[in-house]
Every structure is written in structure tokens, then in C-alpha cells.
Specification:
Layout: E1 5-8, E2 11-12, H1 23-36, E3 39-47, H2 58-88, E4 93-100, H3 102-114, E5 118-121, H4 130-141, E6 146-148, E7 161-165, H5 170-178, H6 180-183, E8 188-195, H7 207-213, E9 220-226, H8 232-243, E10 247-251, H9 259-263, H10 268-272, E11 278-281
Length: 282
Amino acid sequence: MTIKTILVAPIFEAQVDAPAPAHSVVAFATQLACRHGAHLNICLGVGRISLPSAAIVAEVQGLLNQTNEDRRTAAKVFGDETLRWARSEGVTTSLEFVYGDYSQVCEKMTGFARASDISIAQPHDQLFSLSETVIEELMFSSGRPLILLPSKWKGSVAFLRIVIAWDGSAKAARAVGDAMPFIDGASEIEIVTIKEDSNSRKQSSGVDIASRIVRHARNVHLTELPCVTGDIAQTLRDHVAMTRADLLVMGAYGHSRFRQFIIGGVTRSVIADPPVPVLLSY
């Protein structure tokens, strides 16, 4: 697989006081597109603020209409700026505006993602945000891999050190396949398994997938991590932070406990601010 079409999905949240999306996510996607000679599609989602009861009071409805119009104007300015910047970096770039309520934005974003090789998004730090909803749709409904970018990430898009969270599942295998364009260029690959059950028959050692990856990268090694606290998500977070990984690769649902990494209540903070860029496949 080669990467030739990248979707980046900045989101203007559907709250009056919500800040504009960070330029960093577009900058990251632009650098990645430049590295892979790919086309970049900036798909800017703008959540419409609505209040059903406002229709009863004309003045309130007027204020909402003006607020939504101001947000659309701000989104256009943001979009035009990022489009000019990306093109100035030598990347062929297109710009799409998606305006509407949560379901409309999610549906259109997912459609654009399905026509791309990979999507990039940056989580929002609020629960029940439009970003959170879009990210879940991109992960579970687009059929394409998704990279979640930390809000303060300043690392390279070269992804020289990659950690693969391996549990032997079909989802993990798909994630490894989707990550091959990055694995081929990495200088070090670490395959991490989590020991959470004393029954060795339930464990995947990683030897099987390592025998495949070693044909793509010279420096491949296996690590078995004990899950001392019973929280796989935190175990992975701590490990990638300690080893200074550039990319974490994992299946979105590969294991019932891994699912906590994505949507569990305790570990939802990982989505809000991932420790490193995370490539997820479902």
C-alpha cells in the first residue's frame, strides 16, 4: 500500500465559545503528504449551533443565525489560510467545507474518508464534542485507517520508532497492514504484547507477526509488558512515553480490553490527548 490521498479533518465545534481548530493538525498532514508525495484534502467540519426552543423567540433565533454565520466566516478564513499554506509547501491540496448538525457533518466526513488512503484528526478536550463523534465515525465506519494527533505533538512525520500493540487479532493485523508505508521507512520497530492472563494459550507472543515485519525493517524486537494495574491503556501510554515512540499502531477493537483504550470511561482521556500519534484500524 502506498499513501497518495490524505484526509485531514479540522473541526469547528458546535459551541459558541469553542476555539478554532489548531493549525498544527493541518501542518502535520501537510508534512506527511509532502513526504509521501500524496494529495491532501482538507475537510473542514463546522458544527451548526441549534436550539429548538429558539425558534419561538425571534430575537434569540436571530442571535443564533448571526453566530452561525460568524462561525462559517471564521471557518472560511481558516480554510483559505491553511489551503494557501499547504500549497506553498508544494503539496497538491483541495479544500472541502462540511456544514451542518452532528449527523450531517459525520456522514459527509466519513464519505470523504472512504475515498482516502488515511485520515488524520486531532481530538478535542471536551466530552460529547463534535470532534469526538467524528473521530469515532472515522475509526469505525470509514473502513480506512485513522491517525490521532496529540495536541502538542512536535515530532517528525518520518515515524522512525514505531510501537505496535499486538494481540493477535484481525483488527491488529489490519492495523499493521495499514501502517506498512510507515514501517518500511522506520529505523526501529517494537512489537508489544500485554501479559494479562496466566494461561499462555491465551497470549499472542508476537513472534508470528515479527517474522513478517522483519522482511520490511531490520531492527525489530519483541517486548512483553506486564499489566500490573489491570489497565492496558495506561500500560501502553506509559511505555510509548518512556521509549519516546514516534507512532503507536493498534487495532481499534482487537481485544475486549483493548476496546477500553478507545471508548472506555476511564481511558477516554487517551483519545482526548494521545501520548503520541496513534494509527488505528478497525
